[in-house]
Design goal:
The protein is α/β, with parallel strands linked by helices. About 25% of the residues lie in helices and about 25% in strands.
Length: about 290
């Protein structure tokens, strides 16, 4: 097995929305804001090469939305999904599986593109199976009003219409090993219903792609919960249980949205679980 970090593009989000009820004087210590209160955000994906399968975890925003849409998110930097794949010797047509932690636009938008004449949409990975789970798919395709702006039908429905969508078998225990993609999945419901957190055994280490369970290293303190979470009081025990496990078992956490701390480890302290070590992508993957 070989793993490759895939940088799908950086953008910015409102720091207050990213940290909910936490005062700005606290969250800016780890996530400084610009003059518009925006903080740096990454769209970091993960590519798994395992035998004859090439699995991409999440796809970033993509580029099919309008300039008005992207104007809200202040994209910055030079990263994009195609160039990042090319850097590691791959093309999107090589991808056999696209695993979506959840279907918010910044996690799955790159999985669908305009068709040639821009009259409709098609999967951006024509040879891939797209993986979600039944409960989350229903949640996303019948969205509540609070999440409606994050579940865009043009990002989601073409996966099913093309016949490329499949659902993973949902386990009954944390980090079940039994699933179709050969890595464990933890289901969490605080951010959105049945978000999937994959963990991979890699060269004797356990790497966890934490998606929106832990967006940045600045979200390690338990009360630091995103305003975007639909059930913040459920996020608290989910995060607490996971972080205790991560500290005890020495997990390496790949942070999808932290533009400056791509991989971290955590440790138990008298204040709770806190940051232990930050690793660069080169340190971990080379």
């Amino acid at each position: 097995m070989q793993l490759y970090p895939i940088e799908a593009g950086n953008f910015k989000l409102d720091g207050g929305a990213m940290f909910g009820v936490v005062p700005k004087t606290l969250w800016t210590r780890t996530n400084p804001a610009d003059e518009n209160n925006m903080i740096d955000i990454a769209a970091r994906c993960l590519l798994i090469e395992n035998s004859d399968r090439l699995t991409l975890i999440d796809t970033g925003m993509g580029n099919k939305q309008s300039e008005k849409f992207f104007g809200y998110y202040h994209r910055w930097g030079d990263y994009n999904l195609d160039d990042s794949l090319k850097k590691h010797g791959f093309h999107r047509d090589d991808i056999t599986d696209v695993f979506m932690t959840h279907l918010h636009f910044d996690h799955c938008g790159g999985g669908v593109q305009w068709n040639k004449d821009r009259t409709g949409y098609e999967p951006a990975f024509k040879n891939a199976i797209y993986w979600s789970n039944k409960d989350h798919w229903q949640w996303a395709t019948e969205p509540n009003r609070r999440e409606q702006a994050s579940f865009l039908k043009e990002n989601i429905l073409p996966m099913q219409e093309s016949g490329q969508l499949k659902f993973v078998t949902q386990p009954t225990s944390d980090f079940s090993e039994a699933n179709e993609l050969d890595f464990g999945i933890l289901y969490v419901d605080g951010h959105t219903d049945k978000q999937m957190i994959p963990h991979i055994n890699y060269k004797g280490k356990t790497l966890v792609f934490v998606a929106d369970l832990l967006p940045t290293a600045g979200h390690l303190p338990l009360p630091f919960v995103m305003g975007y979470d639909t059930r913040p009081l459920l996020t608290l025990p989910e995060k607490e249980k996971f972080l205790k496990m991560a500290a005890e078992k020495g997990y390496y956490l790949i942070l999808e949205h932290d533009a400056h701390n791509p991989i971290i480890t955590v440790k138990n302290t008298d204040k709770g679980v806190r940051l232990d070590e930050t690793l660069s992508l080169n340190e971990f993957f080379n």
